[in-house]
Write a structure and sequence with these properties.
This protein is α/β, with parallel strands linked by helices. The chain is 50% helix and 16% strand.
């Protein structure tokens, strides 16, 4: 388990409990040692509740970026059957930061598209840390066109710091690809639902999340820019990231009040990284409910619903 900065007191208590259990396995007084370990477990549980009771925006940002949170691949493996990945944008190449293809959700055919960050050094480099290049967005456009043609609902799983800002990506039309992907989201006449499972960064996230229904995991974030980037621009000081995180209103709770998203999916105590299977199950239930809300709607109504949703954004205030 990787502990975040604010979880250090918890790490100490859980570490001591584990040390006692290791001693118990070697000691004849195992019962007494186990009682002490159980007392530490209770203390750790209470501490975990206190730490996660009222997380500020910066701490939520840290949780959203936790390397042990389940990633797109985990959700696809657990929630979808008969997943058939499709590769390439038919123009330049394939982008491993974006995975997608045909699948079945609750035994119904669909198209699933998501950002994949990777789980270790090798896979993170291969997936470019979830930062898509133009070919990734053009692959998503191709898959959405296919879904529209065959009347299949589209499910997107968002987890990206933002689109890749490299020179090559810009030369191949990064901003144009993002804009066209966002436009395609608005055009398809099939149900489109999106779940932000970690980071929803900048236009790279919007290009997948311009959906009829948008959900966020409880400790995920969604914003126009990262707190560090915002602090560097506004205050010329990246150390102001905590202030920036608060000012950006990037938490699921704030965005639900602003009606940018439609629902918040509860996470296990301590975040999705502590009990990944429970988090994945909750996301599956959320997706099923969102698709049920849209079932039976005509293509024109789905397009109108989606456009109106985004045209009305900005009318709410948190003041």
């Amino acid at each position: 388990m990787v502990y975040l900065d604010f979880e250090k007191p918890l790490a100490d208590v859980e570490g001591k409990a584990e040390e006692l259990r290791a001693m118990a396995r070697k000691s004849e007084d195992a019962v007494d040692v186990e009682k002490e370990a159980a007392a530490l477990d209770k203390k750790a549980g209470d501490l975990l509740k206190d730490l996660y009771k009222n997380l500020d925006p910066w701490r939520k940002t840290q949780v959203a970026r936790h390397p042990d949170r389940p990633h797109c691949r985990n959700y696809i493996d657990e929630l979808f059957s008969e997943f058939t990945p499709l590769a390439g944008d038919r123009a330049f190449g394939d982008d491993h930061a974006v995975m997608g293809g045909l699948a079945r959700f609750n035994d119904a055919p669909c198209v699933v598209i998501g950002h994949e960050k990777g789980h270790d050094t090798k896979s993170r480099i291969d997936h470019n840390f979830g930062m898509a290049r133009p070919e990734g967005y053009r692959k998503a456009i191709r898959l959405m066109d296919m879904a529209h043609r065959f009347g299949l609902p589209v499910i997107t799983i968002v987890d990206t710091p933002g689109a890749y800002p490299g020179k090559g990506a810009e030369e191949r039309g990064q901003s144009e690809a993002i804009a066209r992907c966002t436009q395609k989201c608005l055009e398809i006449g099939v149900p489109l639902v999106s779940v932000i499972i970690g980071e929803g960064g900048s236009g790279g996230a919007v290009a997948f999340a311009t959906a009829n229904r948008i959900a966020m995991l409880e400790h995920s974030i969604y914003s126009v820019i990262s707190p560090e980037g915002c602090a560097s621009i506004l205050w010329k000081d990246s150390d102001k990231m905590r202030d920036a995180a608060t000012a950006l209103r990037l938490t699921a709770q704030d965005l639900k009040k602003l009606e940018v998203i439609d629902r918040i999916i509860a996470e296990p105590l301590g975040g999705a990284q502590r009990r990944p299977q429970d988090a994945i199950r909750a996301v599956g239930e959320g997706i099923a409910e969102m698709l049920k809300d849209l079932s039976g709607k005509k293509p024109a109504d789905l397009i109108r619903d989606r456009r109106q949703k985004f045209l009305s954004m900005g009318s709410k205030s948190l003041a």
